[in-house]
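Dear support,

Our group has been running a series of protein-ligand predictions, and this particular one with coenzyme A is the one our PI (initials K.S.) wants archived with full inputs and outputs. We had some confusion internally about which version of the output was final, so please treat the block below as the authoritative record. The input we submitted was:
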Amino acid sequence: MADYHLQAATAEQETAVKSLIRAVHINPLGVDWRRFVVAVDAHGAVIGCGQVKPHGDGSRELASIAVVPEWRRQGVARAIIQRLQSEHAPPLWLTCVSTLTPFYAPFGFVEVRETAVMPPYFRRVHRLFGLFARFSSQTGTLAVMVWPGDTKNC
Ligand SMILES: CC(C)(COP(=O)(O)OP(=O)(O)OC[C@H]1O[C@@H](n2cnc3c(N)ncnc32)[C@H](O)[C@@H]1OP(=O)(O)O)[C@@H](O)C(=O)NCCC(=O)NCCS
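Confirmed final output from the archive:
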């Protein structure tokens, strides 16, 4: 059994959370430590994090899911996501690179392709990413997913 625990983040862990998010190259905006759940190892080091971020349109986003490389594939992200799902009622939205949709599917997240049903924030992100992808050499696509809450959680 891996030796770590989950907890609500503290102010002292803010720097570690921000460093982890920078290190794994995910969205560094809207990183308020008060919303975070962190995974902490036996030495007190932050080894994973995640949050639910509220948006101005009333939607909420499962975001900032990250685990340090040496702790990956040991269920740390799963534990963080399930904890956040237990604390926040559906629907929860997220964006991810399309290669990660199989990672989120077992938690009940389904991909949404129809922009008309997306909350305005996610519609904007989807549109901006599409424009960016058209005018840059990057080939990956952005997926928008929702946990509607009426599917079985894993
Ligand atoms: C994606 C990430 C958070 C996964 O963390 P993790 O702690 O290794 O994930 P877990 O061990 O909890 O994996 C849970 C399940 O997802 C699977 N999984 C893990 N990474 C996966 C990936 N990249 N693609 C598909 N499935 C994956 C695991 O095999 C496991 O499945 P199982 O239950 O059948 O064994 C981690 O690789 C990471 O921090 N990546 C960089 C940051 C990032 O991309 N974050 C997501 C932003 S949208």
